[in-house]
Amino acid sequence: MAAALILICGAAPLRAQSVAVMVNGEVITNFDVDQRMKLTGLSGQKSPNRKDVIEELINEKVKIKEGKKFSVDPGASEVDGAFQSMSGRMRLSPEQLVAQLATKGIRPDTLKSRLKADMVWNALVRGRFKQSLQVGEKEVEAVVLNSGGDSNVEAFEYQMRPVVLVVPRGAGAGAAEARSKEAEGLRSRIQTCDEANSTFKSMQNATIRDTVIKTSADLPPTLRELLDKTPIGHLTPPEVTRQGIEMVALCSRKPTKIDTPKKREVRDKMFAEKFEAKSKAYLQEVRNGSMIEYRQQ
């Protein structure tokens, strides 16, 4: 009777750890597949297909192996950094992201494995095929003109110095409101970046950062519009952030034809298309040279 109970209770774990695929001597278990299916299901677009998930895991195994051939092998700290960056984009701490995954029965290593494979493959494709992935300016201009756009549309290069009036955490809404009023007073007085530099360097609980240079193509439309309305040497309207009250001192705004938002959009799209084509061909080549053994499910 006891033996029968052991067999019954042990059936699920044994099934979970049974081998689904062997890839170059490495194991992908049914547990790995189940975990990835749960992760894929978080997108909410459609129910994940088990066969597709298995193929995705196979691809990741061959990508990691190919990376090691060229000494592209991110360590745990680099993968943890990518995990932290992802959680930041989701406005979560890494611990909060781990907790959210746990509510769906997903281990953090399931996501980290996918992140590592992506890191390896991006580095490999960009590094090995750098020349063929380049997008020429004449190509970009031709596409812009053919799409009805103007490649000579005016764009600007902005030189800015970010400014922060610090509001201590937990200080309450009153403190932020008081610093916002202080910021508005400074906006009316400061008329050059030199004035901004001397003013904020002499203030307590305030800082002015080094000069940042961006073009129109680097900035979102709302910020471009704001900077285009701001007189040179003046400060942008104050904005409440996690650091405190932030503004930008606009030091210069020079016309440039180096890049425009439309050119950047076209260039990024052309690069993505070249990258996708090269990545697909390279992956197929690597898979063709791999030993892949499917086990009966």
SSE order: HEEHHHHHHHEHHEEHEEHE
Mean pLDDT across residues:
88
Number of strand elements: 8
CATH class of the largest domain: Mainly Alpha
Helix content: 55-70%
**Whole-number radius of gyration?**
27 Å
Largest sheet: 5 strands, antiparallel
Kindly summarize this structure in a few lines.
The chain is of the alpha+beta class and 297 residues long.
Features:
12 helices; 2 domains; Chitinase A, domain 3; 3-stranded antiparallel beta sheet; alpha+beta; Triger factor/SurA peptide-binding fold; globular; disordered N terminus; 297 residues; 15% strand
Structure write-up:
With 297 residues, this protein is an alpha+beta fold. The chain folds into 2 domains: 16-129, Porin chaperone SurA, peptide-binding domain (Triger factor/SurA peptide-binding fold), CATH 1.10.4030.10; 154-256, Chitinase A, domain 3 (Roll), CATH 3.10.50.40. It has 12 helices and 8 strands. The strands form 2 sheets. Strands 3, 4, 5, 6 and 7 form a 5-stranded antiparallel β-sheet that branches. Strands 2-1-8 form a 3-stranded antiparallel β-sheet. Strand 1 (19-23) and strand 2 form a beta hairpin. The protein is globular, with a radius of gyration of 27 Å. It starts with a helix and ends with a strand. Residues 1-12 have low confidence and may be disordered.
